[in-house]
Design brief:
- The structure holds 2 protein chains of 2 kinds.
- By secondary structure, chain A is of the alpha+beta class.
- Chain A is built from 15 helices and 19 strands.
- The mean pLDDT of chain B is 87.
- Chain B contains 4 helices and 6 strands, in the order H-H-E-E-E-E-H-E-E-H.
- The chains are: A alpha+beta, B alpha+beta.
- Strand 17 of chain A pairs antiparallel with strand 3 of chain B.
């Protein structure tokens, strides 16, 4: 049995006492005696109590925490008040992530998070162990895991390696972010969290008085009513600027030094400037590949690749975008890397029928009409808008927009994969292996039925499609959609049968010349039974 | 193709009525509140009747949809998969291969118990179709369906199912 790194008491109690200290501070403020003002002494006393409680708790936590890696399980005993013994079968381990913040890097310690399928949260967190111990654990946990289900998947992994890298399988560098890519990524990524941070930073910079940020002396000459508008625009500009800078800095530190390597049957990524993140993406658990080409990056010829595994997107609770296998790279390279993971054939998508384009045109026209209608109402009742009918000129944009939407959509029934593409601004191509399809949905709204169109969705177990972005062939012919639905299911069954056959054949083959006793495959006993 | 028990319309209509009543209560209540207080000084006289009219129209729409839903709903246990067709506005045809079935629940809400109906819910690991529910079954049919789905799922014997 091993215990955590001793330094973890210090680090954990630091963050713990910050929490408990703050909690007791709040408690102190609330309960401080004397309705008039706050008793500083009692507050400080409570905060000190909070800090001491935090330290004592963390010391006990350290004392109680034990973990052990056996041949086929990972055992963890933990808990101060409620004690918990866990045994994790190694075959069920999905991902192993290592996280290191600045303090951790100074002290040479790291947090290890072990994920299993199912369950919304991290199964086991080791906070913290020594850096090299973390890497040792990751390696052993993952190798144990792949040994555990080798009979299920190693054939698939085998023919994958044959396609991609016939040579060495050990830690091959697949991708490393280049400075130029990192800069472009940072400059053009909009982080939603950053807008909040930007606002906070702005209010700090102004000393909590937004008025100081406004160039009051320079707008004095403006006539009355325009000043308000100007101030508003100015404030908005400042806010956007702050959000943009914060967002760029955040993205830069997040993806700094991004590296993707491949060891045997898993991808391993490392990234981060201040906080180091690293983790594994097991290839045999890949559900869907997504290649996305968003607008500013598309102009530079870049694309991004993300890999979804079952029930788990690395960094669900953490920062977004962590699951991306490649945050940004040359489009051709991304496709090549995607093919190394799932060897899909040449992309030759089938477009939706032309009447889908008419549908988009009518939809956009309705939007424009609604806009004009609202403008007319506003003009009528408030008199704020003079020439509201000029808005109708937007209708000129409708045909090109409809056409763009139409061209951006498509689908393909490949030999082993179902490919779909959609999105004008963020063009995403999804690659779904047939044997990962969970259910096939054929949907037709009342408007689609008028034109006998339908959308066919291949549902997978990937967690990312919770955001409503499952692989969908939009607006295809309704009849063709039904065929596609039947076809997808047929191919799913066929692939499953093929995989099962491969598996049993592989098992027999291995049993036939099983010489290596360390192999976790079928044991000699089962050989005899047959 | 199997249809649901016609009695399911009672459940749907009751639900639609309750929802329409709640919505109507909120809308009409808000309209009355606006006219009686000073919040909106020059509130037009038609506000309350208009709100009531909207509520009634929506309620009728809901009831019609609930009635029509029965005509659309169909399901079938096919050789390799469960096939479901449903949806008044958006027609959805779902195919769930038995290999992918994780577990099967049968469920009876209070309303269903009073009408003597049951719902069977089929779960897959998929993120969108994880709640394939077949409502409006007689309890006996629900049990039989659950049993046969379970049998078919075991028979098809998938690997990891994800």
């Amino acid at each position: 049995m091993r215990s955590l790194h001793p330094a973890s008491i210090a680090v954990r109690s630091l963050s713990r006492s910050l929490n408990t200290g703050f909690m007791f501070f709040v408690v102190g403020v609330v309960v401080s005696p004397g309705g008039n003002g706050i008793d500083l002494l009692s507050i400080f006393g409570l905060v000190a109590v909070g800090i001491v409680v935090g330290i004592v708790y963390e010391f006990a936590y350290y004392k109680r925490f034990r973990y052990d890696l056996t041949d086929d399980t990972f055992d963890v005993t933990s808990g101060v008040l409620a004690r918990r013994d866990r045994e994790l079968p190694l075959g069920r381990v999905q991902n192993v992530d290592i996280r290191q913040n600045v303090l951790g890097r100074v002290l040479g310690i790291a947090a290890v998070h072990v994920e299993t399928a199912g369950g919304g949260q991290t199964e086991v967190s080791l906070e913290y162990v020594a850096e090299d111990e973390a890497h040792r654990l990751r390696r052993q946990l993952r190798s144990g895991a792949s040994r555990g289900d080798s009979d299920a998947d190693d054939l698939e992994a085998g023919d994958r390696t044959a396609v991609s890298d016939p040579g060495t399988a050990d830690d091959e560098l697949l991708f490393e972010i280049e400075p130029r890519e990192l800069v472009i990524l940072s400059v053009f990524t909009i982080d939603p969290g950053a807008s909040l941070l930007g606002g906070i930073a702005l209010s700090f910079a102004s000393g909590f008085d937004p008025a100081t940020l406004l160039p009051g002396d320079r707008i004095g000459w403006l006539p009355g009513p325009e000043t308000g508008l100007f101030v508003l625009v100015w404030g908005l500009l400042l806010f956007l600027l702050a959000a943009w800078v914060v967002s760029a800095v955040l993205t830069f530190t997040r993806y700094y030094g991004f590296r993707l390597t491949r060891a045997d049957d898993e991808l391993y990524y490392e990234r981060g400037l201040l906080q180091r993140y690293s983790g594994t993406i097991p290839l045999e658990k890949v559900q869907t590949l997504t290649i996305s080409r968003s607008v500013p990056f598309r102009w530079f010829g870049y694309a991004a690749l993300s890999v979804e595994t079952a029930g788990y997107a690395p960094g669900q609770s953490d920062s977004r975008g962590t699951e991306s296998a490649i945050p940004l790279a040359d489009a051709d390279r991304v496709t090549e890397l995607a093919r190394a993971i799932e060897p899909f054939g040449p992309v030759d998508l089938e477009s939706p029928p032309r009447r889908a384009r008419e549908r988009y045109a009518i939809r956009y026209l309705l939007v424009v009409a609604a806009g004009v209608g609202i403008a007319a109402l506003v003009a009528r009742y408030t008199g704020a808008l003079g020439r509201w009918y000029l808005l109708a000129a937007l209708a000129v944009l409708v045909p090109p927009a409809a056409h763009l939407k139409w061209t951006s959509r498509g689908y393909q029934v490949d030999d082993r994969y179902f490919l779909t593409r959609t999105g004008v601004w963020r063009r995403t191509t999804k690659v779904v292996p047939y044997y990962r399809v969970q259910a096939v949905l054929h949907q037709a709204t009342i408007f689609q039925r008028r034109r006998s169109l339908a959308s066919v969705t291949a549902d997978t177990a990937s967690s990312a499609s919770l955001l409503g972005r499952a692989a969908t062939a939009h607006d295809i012919d309704a009849e063709r959609g039904l065929e596609l639905q039947a076809d997808l299911e047929e191919r799913l069954q066929e692939r499953l049968r093929a995989r099962k056959r491969q598996r049993t054949v592989g098992q027999r083959f291995r049993e036939a010349d099983d010489g290596d006793p360390s192999d976790e495959g079928p044991s000699p006993e089962s050989d005899d039974e047959r | 193709m199997e249809r649901l028990t016609p009695r399911v319309r009672v459940v749907w209509l009751a639900l639609a009525l309750v929802r329409a009543a709640i919505f109507g209560g909120i809308v009409v209540g808000a309209a009355i509140g606006l006219t009686r207080t000073d919040l909106w000084a020059s509130a037009p006289d038609v506000l309350v009747p208009a709100a009531a009219a909207i509520a009634v129209v929506l309620a009728v729409l809901r009831l019609v949809v609930a009635w029509l839903r029965y005509g659309v709903w169909r399901f079938e246990l096919r050789d390799d998969d469960l096939y479901i067709e449903r949806g008044v506005f958006t027609r959805v045809r779902t195919v769930v291969p038995y290999v992918r079935v994780q577990h099967v629940d049968s469920r009876r809400s209070p309303l269903e118990r009073t009408t003597g109906l049951a719902t069977v819910v089929v779960y897959t690991a998929g993120s969108r179709s994880s709640d394939v529910a077949i409502p409006g079954l007689t309890p006996a049919r629900a049990d039989a369906l659950q049993e046969s789905l379970r049998g078919l799922a075991i028979e098809s014997e998938g690997e990891d199912a994800v």
